[in-house]
Design a protein that fits this description.
By secondary structure, this protein is α+β, with helices and mostly antiparallel strands. Among the domains are: 92 residues, Beta Barrel (OB fold (Dihydrolipoamide Acetyltransferase, E2P)); 28 residues, no CATH class. It has four helices and seven strands, in the order βββαββαααββ. It has a five-stranded mixed barrel with strand order 1-2-3-5-4. The radius of gyration is 23 Å and the shape is elongated.
């Protein structure tokens, strides 16, 4: 099982249960014989706890984790001694029994936080990292919900949603064209547009992504 719960799901009702979580390492805090790791996915953040007195080897594994490592953790849900009212899952934590690094990661060029230290140009260069931040992710989810509502409403009115690529002549751009041979005109080709500016008045194709 990849995961049994999301990182924004666990509450006091889950205390005593063995769960499996997966996500990105948001941050790690070391305190002598203990370490705490905030594990993040699109649904929220859950704290993982490691204790040298309980499992020294597991603690050593946890202290190798860096920001944005993708990990899977199996453990028991327990009530936190120091609760965090700013988190939906702030009343509980996971005593980790098994830790698996699914994918290591280089240190990101800016912090994946609501208030990041990355300027706009840097964030646009690493857009795939920027969309992990809650403000950007929430905007994408809002757009998704609006599009879904509009399509659902139009569907009830009998409209049919049809999306097709636009075939045009090749444009003078630096990017390589996606060439499509013409079946009616031998040795002639169409090219898919490389830039959304070509058809600003028409609209854009909707792309979906799981976060």
């Amino acid at each position: 099982m990849f995961r049994s719960h999301t990182c924004g799901e666990l509450r006091l009702d889950h205390v005593g249960q063995t769960v499996t979580l997966a996500g990105w390492v948001q941050r790690r805090r070391d305190f002598g014989g203990m370490s705490f790791v905030d594990l993040r996915d699109r649904y929220g953040i859950t704290q993982l706890s490691f204790n040298e007195l309980v499992d020294a080897d597991r603690l050593a594994e946890a202290r190798k984790l860096q920001r944005e490592f993708v990990v899977q953790a199996v453990g028991i849900v327990v009530e936190r001694e120091n609760k965090n009212p700013n988190l939906a899952t702030g009343d509980v934590e996971i005593k980790v029994q098994q830790l698996t690094v699914l994918n290591a990661a280089a240190t990101p060029p800016f912090t994946i936080e609501d208030e990041t230290d990355g300027g706009e140009e840097l964030r646009m260069k690493y857009r795939y990292l920027d969309i992990r931040r809650a403000p950007v992710r929430n905007n994408l989810l809002l757009r998704h919900r609006i599009n879904r509502s509009v399509r659902s409403y139009l569907d009830t009115l009998g409209f049919v949603d049809v999306e097709t690529p636009f075939l045009i002549k090749s444009t003078p751009e630096g990017a390589r064209d996606f060439v499509v041979p013409s079946r009616l005109n031998q040795n002639q080709f169409y090219a898919l547009p490389q830039s959304p500016q070509t058809f600003q008045e028409v609209g854009s194709t909707i792309r979906t992504r799981r976060i």
